[in-house]
Amino acid sequence: MSLVDRHVGFVHALREAGIPVSLAEGLDAARALRVVELADRESLRAAYAATLIKKPAYRPGFDVLFDLWFPAVMTETEQAASQQAASQEAASREATGSAQPDTAALRDRLARLLLHGSDEELRAFARDMVERFGRQPAAPGRQSWFSYGVLRALSPETLMARLLAEVLAGQERGGIAEKRARTQISRKIEQFTDAVTTDIRRRIAEESGVERIARSAVRPPLDQIDFLRATKDDLARLRREVQPLARRLAARLAIKHRHRRRGRLDFRRTVRASLQTGGVPLTTHFKPPRPHKPELVILCDTSDSVSSFAHFTLLLTYALREQFTKVRAFGFVDTVDEITRFFAPGSDVVEAMTRMAQEADMARFGRTNYGHALERFTERYGEAVGPRTALLILGDARSNYQPAAVDLLKGLVARARHAYWLNPEPRAQWDTGDSVASDYAEVIPMRECRNVAQLAAFIEDLA
Asked: Is the pLDDT of residue 78 over 60?
C-alpha cells in the first residue's frame, strides 16, 4: 500500500469513526507529510493530530486508528531486547528441563520492566507475550488473536502489592510516597496493557484487513454516542457534559425571550409622535420589556424504550435549576407526575433518579400513552404553562397506537412563550410503526436529538 493510499484510507477511517475531517484538513495533513520525517513515527502522529483533531475527546479514537494504519516497526533496541528475552527463557527452560514457558519467570521479568524497564523494552515484551499467549482457536482450522490470554497468564494487576513493597522498601505505608508509587505503577501497568491491545489489533489487521478491524476498533466520540444506546459508563461520562450545555441553553432561551417581543405599546409617546403627521400614528413606540429569567417546564417520557435518553435529559433538568427562575419537571409513561421534588438543591442526582423510579406515579399499565399523559397533564398541571414559560418535551412520540391528543398539545403550545420537542430517534424512523411524530411536529417544532452533538446544535440554533 502506497503512502497516498494509506493517507486516504486513514482519513476515511477517521470519518467513519465519527471524527469530523474536512477536505481542507485532509489536504493540510498531506502537506504536513512533506515537512516531517516520515521515519519518525511520533512526529508523523503529531503532524496528523495537529491538522486533523479539533477536540481532545477525539484523540483516543485517533490514536487507535493511527496505530492500525501506521503500525510500529520494531527498533534495534526492541529487537535486541526481544532476542535477549528469548535466549534467557531458553536457558531457563533448559536448566529446569521443561519444554513449557515458565510463567513465574515471565511475571518476574514483567515486574522488573514495570519498575526499571524503558518504554521500548516494555513494548517488545508485550509483543513477545502476544506471540506466546495471544493466539487462540477461533473456528475449526482457524486462529485469531485475543488479549485475554496474555493478561490472564501474566495478571499484571496482581503484581501491585509486590511492586509496592519493593519500591517503598520499609517506608511507612499509607502516606504520600505510597500514593505516588501506586500511581506510577498503575500507569506502567496500563501502558503494558495498551501495548498488548495495540499489538493484538495490528495482528488482526494484518490477517483480516485494516479496514475491517478499523470499523469495530473505535467507539464513537462521546458527543456522538446515541442516547438510546448509551451504557452506564457512557452516561457517567455524559454527566460532565451537562453543566456547560445547561448554561448555554439557559442563555439562548433568555436571549430569545428578550428579542422575540418588544414591550407593551407606549400610548402617550405614540399619540405625541402622531401630531407631526396630522394625528396619523405612522410611528408606534413601545415600552422597554422587563428583563427577567424565563421559566422552564420539561415534560419527559421516562418509559424503558427511551430510558437512557430520559436519564440524560433529567441530568440536564437537574443542571438547569440554577439557570431559570423556576424549573418544573414532569415524567410520564401512560400517566404523568411532577418529579421536581426529587431534584431538590443538594440532592445527589443518581439517588434522586432512583427515588423517582420507585416513588413517582408515572405509569398505570406500563405502556406509553402520550394522549393520556397530555390529558392528565392538562387537567392537573395546566397552570404550569404560561406566557413566561419555555416548554420542552422530550420523547420518541411512540404512543402504542393510542389517540395522540394533538388538540391538547396545541393548547399548551399556544399558552407557552417557547415550545420545543426533542426526539431521540433518527428522523428516518419517524412515523414508522406506532410513531405519531409528524402529527405532533405540525403543532410544535420537533428536532432529532440523538446525541450531545445534536443537542448542542439545537441550543446554538436558538440564538
From this structure: no
